[in-house]
Amino acid sequence: MKKHIFLIGFMGCGKSTNAKFLAEMTGKIRTEMDDEIAAEKGMEVQTIFRKYGETYFRDLETELIKKLAFREPSVVSCGGGAVLREENVAMMKEEGLVVLLTASPETVYERIHGMGDRPVLKGNMNVPYIRELMEKRRPSYEAAADFRVATDGKTAEEICREILELVSAQT
Ligand code: S3P
After folding, report:
1. Which of 1, 14, 36, 130 has its CB 3.0 to 4.6 Å from that of 171, i.e. a possible disulfide?
2. Buried (b) or exposed (e) across 129-152, using 16+ Cβ within 10 A?
């Protein structure tokens, strides 16, 4: 596998969990965008949002995607908003393959509602709002994706096997 595999999708679609699993299956390293940004800035993502605002965080995402071009191929768990900038998507496509993970709004809510670490859902942690934001972002996710994998009701192993089947011809 010579390229990065970018896992994209809405919050709670399983990017982090499946990136871990996929990295183990392939022997590749894992890049967790949120964690790397948080480590570099020495503060959690929600603190970056609160102190410096969303645009600043989006700039950090763009910088990190730029840097990935110079690193060994990895499985990249992207932040849920990383594809909102066309510039980021163009770089992802240069650097690797982009796999969109999807889940229903209900599944997303079940997975993340107890966590309290998603600033873009602050004060709006409910299924109707998640559905609305998901729909608003859908064109960006669809435009970025080389492949799509639905995650509802599947194990990480099933999801990662599907991903590997899809990407294997192109890596
Ligand atoms: C965001 C998703 C988060 C994180 C930040 C913004 C978004 O990542 O990057 O809170 O705009 O969708 P996850 O998708 O890993 O939750």
Report:
1. 1
2. ebeebbeebeebbeebbbbbbebe
